[in-house]
Amino acid sequence: MDNDAGCCSTQLIDGDGTFNVTGLEKFIKEVKMGECGLSYAVVSIMGPQSSGKSTLLNHLFGTNFREMDAFRGRSQTTKGIWMARCVGIEPTTIVMDLEGTDGRERGEDDTAFEKQSALFALAVSDIVLINMWCHDIGREQAANKPLLKTVFQVMMRLFSPRKTTLVFVIRDKTRTPLEALEPVLREDIQKIWDAVPKPHAHKETPLSEFFNVEVVALSSYEEKEEQFKQQVADLRKRFFHSINPGGLAGDRRGVVPASGFSFSAQQIWKVIKENKDLDLPAHKVMVATVRCEEIAYERYNDFVQNQEWLQLEEASQSGPVPGFGKRLSLIIRNCLSDYDSEAVYFDEGVRTAKRKHLEERLLQLVQPAFQSILGHLRSETLDKFKEAFEKALNGEGFAAAAHSCKQRFVNLFDEGCADAVIEQANWDTLKARSKLVRDLDEYIASVRAAKLAELTSHYEAKLNEALSGPVEALLDSASDETWPSIRKLLRRESQSAVSGLASDLSGFDLDEQTKDKMLAKLEDYARSVVEAKARDEAGRILIRMKDRFTTLFSHDADSMPRVWTGKEDIKSITKFARSASLKLLSVLAVVRLDDEPDDIDKTLSLALVEHKSSSSSTSENSLALSDPLASSSWDKVPSSKTLITPVQCRSLWRQFQMETEYTVSQAIAAQEASRRSNNWMPPGWAIAAMLILGFNEFMTLLRNPLYLAVLFVGFLVSKALWVQMDISNEFRHGILPGILSLSTRFLPTVMNMLRKLAEEGNRPASQTNAPPVSNTIQGASRSNSSVSSSGSSRVTVVENGTEYSSSSKEE
């Protein structure tokens, strides 16, 4: 393509190393580079001579660099460094075409310019294309490794490193996939970087701090031209907006403004020209390096394809291989011997270094198989140990079985390691042995912990079974002997469990401190069972107290249900039942496992049963001071042993009294009902008078049943009014207030009843299931009659100055 006007190609540095200052200034003016500020990019390309660098740039950026004419032979085309502007790419992008390396025109002794130009490209470029043949990957000289190593080293010393993107362009790609080629290139560049001596400030600086590495592959231009052009077109897209975040040079640093590019480039070239570290090594060393590397590469490939090695590698994946170390050592020894026979006449220093490198590569190749063998040995030994250890536990003590089995299988592992050791490798199997010992110890510890936990759980279960039921029964009995009996039970069961556990622990070879700790923990568990049961019972204290009260109040001394005939002394029965419930409260107030006396029972009795009501003149402060239940803790009792505080006792007792008052009221009502049921008939003379004086009216009702119906309806209406207006309750406040209240409520009540009757009459029969009006009135009468009777009744019993009353509607 003809892009002369757009690319403005110019020779920046000639073949003798002379910097074209005038040409650069003219180029900057033509492309208006000074107006770009920081919005520009510099791309350069380097690689072997006649590798198609100029051809690639012309297709990639639309430049017009001179290309080699293949029909005239292969020779040097580009001399020095040329630069041009990329056509159609934004932002402004400048590309530099470097003279090819390894050319016959300069010869083998004049490579200083190659290194100088490469160093210059890295120093000024944002992106450096490294052009290389696909078949040169893995080689030393052809892949530019020595050149890059020297350039990296000098660049680190001469300039402040900037962030540069290295794009390896693989030409004439073969069938080898790019995924297999890219790791090799990345590994090579990383090794070069690691081997380069660096200033102290960058000793630990990673390659990624100064270089981004990209790899692309292109097909052959001569054999697959269309495919080559399509791949170049795809690569060209990546150079659009290359300096934006995410672009090829998106994270570049140390950019020089475009107006200062000319001066910066001149100074960099001056520093490079004055440096003396870019000299070529001796020809003999170079030849030895290249040839020894080729021999080592061939021997390495022979080893990789060796069938015996492949069989050993495959077998090592499934388990230990007998004689692995000896067989593999022989293969490696033969490989190194072949290398020595071929490289014997080359430089000794180079030969030795490359032999060592070959040996390292071979050992690096076989190390995974060796580690796999060790892993299988360790896993197999551990599995066998587990099986043998489990069997040994059935015939001897834990400690003896663990020691004998561990020693036996560690020795077995050592024998397996000795068989797998490779002669050429100085690999230590101590790490694998230590891991095995650690695994064995961990397994022994886990089995020990499981066995101890099993023993502990067994004795804890026995304690729980031996203590829970009896303790609950003793607490439910609530007598003065409750806690002494519990303490006796706890001592007996704890001593039995501790003795059994101590006997079982003798075979574990535990130190005395651990053993004492476990026994103490078991004793603490026994106490915790009792305390937990006591706390559970204390949490249900109110229910327990009510159940005890109901049982004692509703049953006689023979446990038969009481029949309230009116002859029973309810006051004495109530006092007895409540005293028994109070005893239950005092027993469950605190945990008494330490046999320390307390006066809680006496305090509760004095404060809740025998305490007289204070006079109305006594102040609240004096009452609080004289009340032993005003405190939140018991005297001489630790808070950790307190189940129910004094304040809670008072609150529970009040709630208990309120909830049992109804039972007492029912009993009193039952007595009253029993008395009334015995005297419900009027006297005989009254019955005779009613029969004589009411004979005529009775006969009148029999002759005319209509009167009877009218009287019945009147009775129902009167009863309904009585219930609706609650007449009996209204007159409890006095006759005059009752009459006034009824006079204001009479008419609204009658109207309300008539409205309800009208609504019932208007409702269709299919939509109502209501009973007849008479039944409704009768039901309401019966219901409200019972409510009124229960609401208006009031029974009072006075016990020790305390009044117990049944519920009333007014209350």
UniProtKB/TrEMBL annotation:
<dbReference type="InterPro" id="IPR030386">
    <property type="entry name" value="G_GB1_RHD3_dom"/>
</dbReference>
<keyword id="KW-0378">Hydrolase</keyword>
<feature type="domain" description="GB1/RHD3-type G">
    <location>
        <begin position="37"/>
        <end position="252"/>
    </location>
</feature>
<keyword id="KW-0547">Nucleotide-binding</keyword>
<feature type="compositionally biased region" description="Polar residues">
    <location>
        <begin position="802"/>
        <end position="811"/>
    </location>
</feature>
<feature type="binding site">
    <location>
        <begin position="47"/>
        <end position="54"/>
    </location>
    <ligand>
        <name>GTP</name>
    </ligand>
</feature>
<dbReference type="InterPro" id="IPR046758">
    <property type="entry name" value="Sey1/RHD3-like_3HB"/>
</dbReference>
<keyword id="KW-0175">Coiled coil</keyword>
<keyword id="KW-1133">Transmembrane helix</keyword>
<feature type="transmembrane region" description="Helical">
    <location>
        <begin position="706"/>
        <end position="723"/>
    </location>
</feature>
<dbReference type="GO" id="GO:0003924">
    <property type="term" value="F:GTPase activity"/>
</dbReference>
<keyword id="KW-0472">Membrane</keyword>
<keyword id="KW-0256">Endoplasmic reticulum</keyword>
<dbReference type="GO" id="GO:0005525">
    <property type="term" value="F:GTP binding"/>
</dbReference>
<feature type="compositionally biased region" description="Polar residues">
    <location>
        <begin position="764"/>
        <end position="780"/>
    </location>
</feature>
<feature type="region of interest" description="Disordered">
    <location>
        <begin position="760"/>
        <end position="811"/>
    </location>
</feature>
<dbReference type="GO" id="GO:0005789">
    <property type="term" value="C:endoplasmic reticulum membrane"/>
</dbReference>
<dbReference type="GO" id="GO:0016320">
    <property type="term" value="P:endoplasmic reticulum membrane fusion"/>
</dbReference>
<dbReference type="InterPro" id="IPR027417">
    <property type="entry name" value="P-loop_NTPase"/>
</dbReference>
<keyword id="KW-0342">GTP-binding</keyword>
<feature type="compositionally biased region" description="Low complexity">
    <location>
        <begin position="781"/>
        <end position="798"/>
    </location>
</feature>
<feature type="topological domain" description="Cytoplasmic">
    <location>
        <begin position="727"/>
        <end position="811"/>
    </location>
</feature>
<dbReference type="InterPro" id="IPR008803">
    <property type="entry name" value="RHD3/Sey1"/>
</dbReference>
<dbReference type="Pfam" id="PF05879">
    <property type="entry name" value="RHD3_GTPase"/>
</dbReference>
<keyword id="KW-0812">Transmembrane</keyword>
<protein>
    <recommendedName>
        <fullName>Protein ROOT HAIR DEFECTIVE 3 homolog</fullName>
        <ecNumber>3.6.5.-</ecNumber>
    </recommendedName>
</protein>
<feature type="topological domain" description="Lumenal">
    <location>
        <begin position="703"/>
        <end position="705"/>
    </location>
</feature>
<dbReference type="Pfam" id="PF20428">
    <property type="entry name" value="Sey1_3HB"/>
</dbReference>
<comment type="similarity">
    <text>Belongs to the TRAFAC class dynamin-like GTPase superfamily. GB1/RHD3 GTPase family. RHD3 subfamily.</text>
</comment>
<feature type="topological domain" description="Cytoplasmic">
    <location>
        <begin position="1"/>
        <end position="681"/>
    </location>
</feature>
<comment type="function">
    <text>Probable GTP-binding protein that may be involved in cell development.</text>
</comment>
